[in-house]
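Example 5.3 — Protein kinase domain-containing protein
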Amino acid sequence: MKRKAVYDCEEGGVLWQRGPLLGRGGFGCVYLAELKKSKSRTSLYPQLMAVKCAEFSVSNSLQKEKQVFDDLCDSPYVLKCYGEETTTASSGEMIYNLLLEYASGGTLSSLIKGSDGGRLAEPIVKRYTKCILKGIDYIHRNSYVHCDLKPDNVLLVSSESSDFVPKIGDFGLSRKCQRNKRRKFDYGIGGTAPYMAPETLTDNIQEASSDIWALGCIVLEMFTGKKVWDSKGNMGTDEIIQKIADRYELPEIPNEISKAGKDFLKACLVKNPMFRFTAEMLLNHPFVSEFDETIRSQSGEVLDERGSSLSNNPDNEVCTLTSYEESSTFTSEEGSSTSSSSLSSDDEEECDSQEFCSAPVSTVIDEDVHLHKVKQ
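Solution (predicted C-alpha cells):
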C-alpha cells in the first residue's frame, strides 16, 4: 500500500507546533517541531524536536520503533525519544507522531557529501567511529540488532561544545534477538543493500556481527567519501549484491589510511561473521581506544556512556578502556585481522550461540536501493 505524504497536519500537538518538512521516507514524513510557549518547556520536551509522522492506519512500523526507543533510552549515542502523540489533520485523518531528538547537524551522510573532497579527517573519523561504536555496543548489550546502519541513520546532535555528537537513529528495521536461540521472523529481514553483510544476502541471517560489517562500511565511507562497493556511483543494486555475496570479494582499503585504521577496518569487514570483531572488542582497538570523546551534560557535568554523571566520583575515568594487545592479533589468509583468542574451542562454541535472526525470504528492491526481504 502506498503511503501518502502528510502535508496537511500543520496543527501539531498539545504543546508543540509542527514546523517545516525535514524529510520523507517509507514510513511517512519528518517535521521540525517547536514548543508553542516557552513556559510549556519540560524535561521531556525540548524547545526543538523532530517529529516522525504517518497516517495512523499505516503507522505500525513507527509504533514498533517507539517500543525500541523505550528499550534503548539510556545511552548518549542513541537518539532520544520524547514520546508519542496522536493528532488530527485538517482533513480529519488521524496522525501518529513520534517525538524525537532534533539533529541540527543533519546526517553523517550529508556531512560526508559536504566535506572537502568528500573525505573526513582521520581525527574526526576516529571520534565519530568511537561514538557510533559505543551506541552499537549499547544496542547489542540490550539484545537488539539495528539491521540498517548507514550514514543516513547516524544523526549529528549539537552539544555544549562546538562539536556535534553522532547518534544512532531509525530503528524501523531493528530486531530483538535472544542469545542461544535461533529466532525466525515471519516478516523477513531487511536493510540497505550496500551496507548489508554477506551472511544476510547469502544465508538470510542478521545478527550483531552484521551490524559490525555495516560499521566497517560506514567508517570506510568516512575515509574515502565514496560508497564502499560503488566508488564511481554507476553500479546497479544487483551488481553490488553480487560483490558482497562473493566469498573472495572484499572492499578495497586505501593505502593512505593509517595502520591502525586499516587494521580496524579489517576487523570489521571479515566475510565470516564468526571471525568478525564484536563491538566490545573493537572498543579496545587502538584506532579508537586512545581517543577521548567525553560527553558532557548541559550543565557541563561529565557523563559516562549511560549518561550518568561522573563528576562526583573522582575515581572514575572517562573513556578509559582496556589496552589492546597487538600480540593477540594476526592476519588471516583472507587478510582480515582477528583475535587469536577468538579461535579457541570455548569461543567457537560461543560463536555458534550468538544471537541471530533468519527467515525464508524473497527479495524486493525499491528505487532507493533499500533492500527488503519478505516471507514468500
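Remark. DSSP finds ten helices and 19 strands in the chain.
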